[in-house]
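Chapter review: from sequence to fold.
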Amino acid sequence: MSAINIPEKTIERLSEYRRTLRSCSEQGITHIFSHVIAGMHGITAVQVRRDLMLIGFSSDTKKGYDVRVLIEFIDGILDSRDVQHIAIIGMGHLGQAITKYFNSKRHNLSIVASFDVDPEKAGQTIDDIPCYDMDEFERRVEELDINIVVLSSPTDVASELVVPIINAGIKGVLNFTSKPLNFPRGIVVENYDITTLLEKVAYFVKENEE
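The token string follows.
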């Protein structure tokens, strides 16, 4: 089944299920029931079963789902056959933190380059990733076959990056700036506003305390 036919929220949950299943596998757990997965994610067992039925996964559930088999099945849904190359734009504290956390954690996703306008960073290797000046962006994207970028640049310059990203032929953008960005159809965009999410958490904490 193509991921295009799977709802966005289901894709997010499948990624979360896979992380949980990998952790279980590392602990020596070989089988797991839907209600156990559900409890670890704060959802219902019905939701878990619906998600797995939607992607065509079926299993003898008398002793639970086979953890390794389910991981491999989700791999086949979420992962591309070829390695997808990623670039970070903005190698400040956030960009470096993202690189340190993510790189080498997924065999099919690889951060291969970073970009920054700071001359003290451009031309350097930061966390084993070469950092280039933004003037080289389009050329390096083509040269390194980059199709996804992560924006961790200052918010006030985020809008200026839209055109270079379009011109370079980037297919996916994960935007960590606090400014939502719009791109033409054909470019997948995820705007991830940490400030808004933190304020949302703080609001519900406040409400629970009152």
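Two observations follow directly from the output. The chain has two domains: 3-78, 84-196. The mean pLDDT is 90.
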